Automatic annotation (TrEMBL):
InterPro entries: DIOX_N, IPNS-like_FE2OG_OXY, IPNS-like_sf, Oxoglu/Fe-dep_dioxygenase_dom. It comes from the Eukaryota. This is Fe2OG dioxygenase domain-containing protein. One of its GO terms (molecular function) is metal ion binding. Belongs to the iron/ascorbate-dependent oxidoreductase family. Keywords: Iron, Metal-binding, Oxidoreductase. Signal peptide: none annotated. Its cofactor is Fe cation. Residues 209-311 form the Fe2OG dioxygenase domain.
Amino acid sequence: MGTKPIFDSMLNERKAFDETKAGVKGLVDAGITKIPTLFHHQPDNYQKSNNINHAIPVIDLVDVIDNKQDSSIQQGIVHKIKEACETWGFFQVVNHGIPLTVLEELKDCVKRFHEQDIEIKKGMYTRDQDKSFIYNSNFDIYSSPALNWRDTFMCYLAPDTPNPQDFPLVCRDILLEYGKQMMNLGTLLFELLSEALGLNPNHLKDMGCAEGLIALCHYYPPCPQPELTVGTTKHSDNDFLTVLLQDHIGGLQVLHQDKWIDVKPVPGALIVNVGDFLQLITNDRFKSVEHRVLANRVGPRISVACFFSTGFRSSSKLYGPMKELLSEENPPKYRETTVAEYVAYFNAKGLDGTSALAHYRI
């Protein structure tokens, strides 16, 4: 009996925050010095690594992009990617072919969108998953144990060609340009990942892994009490592959051997990580690793995560462990599911600190 009034008051608090349509930035603009309790997180049990030797691999793609003829160089890069996906689930890529000017312009546009007049933004605030452009704060506002200190806009960039009119003018052109560049990079990464699994370069692409692209553009305002909350709760990604652009502030941490490792920003680099679906179809060969973003007194921190996934728009296509990787010694560890079903389960569960993959284990 005793918990219901508490739950009701929590729900009302969340609803009130949601209805402001001003997001976390609205709280900061109002000059708060203490963060609301709905953002308070339980302490994390994992320690932070003080081992400076731990750093996620940085892989230079210059030779693959410039010259695909030299197979020995390509094999070296494939081997590094294989190792990174099996042990870390994360790596950074440099010389990836996307111009620095495009990366800088994208970060600027995300900042401009979130810092424009609140009345303009309110008109775009929505929780309607069918829209091509969705701006809100905390997608799991009514299901997560505590809210995250960030605002986000999300847009679909593929498989359907976006209608430019669906995107705000302030970031329309650069989002469309970045989407094209990212599809090219994604195609290359899936070729290298296919080879890392000992398969034909087109294998993952032919399965539809590179078909959909969703951009999540995050804005983490400065936080007056960063020790009480987080920018993004510990989670793994509900996609095939994520390519992340982060700014110079940092705060991203990867859980490696039960310790939090800082992912230090490398100028011009993009961070690549294995998603839950890639772990599922590779039958645990590649690891979808949990990660989080710390809140920070400094800000805003800007990041753009590109998810290779069709999200809610996916077909009835079923995905399970790839037959080519299975054997008597390595039977399937997961049941089949569609992308849409998995994403719906993931979103309903919210960022509660547990992996959605466990639900699909055989």
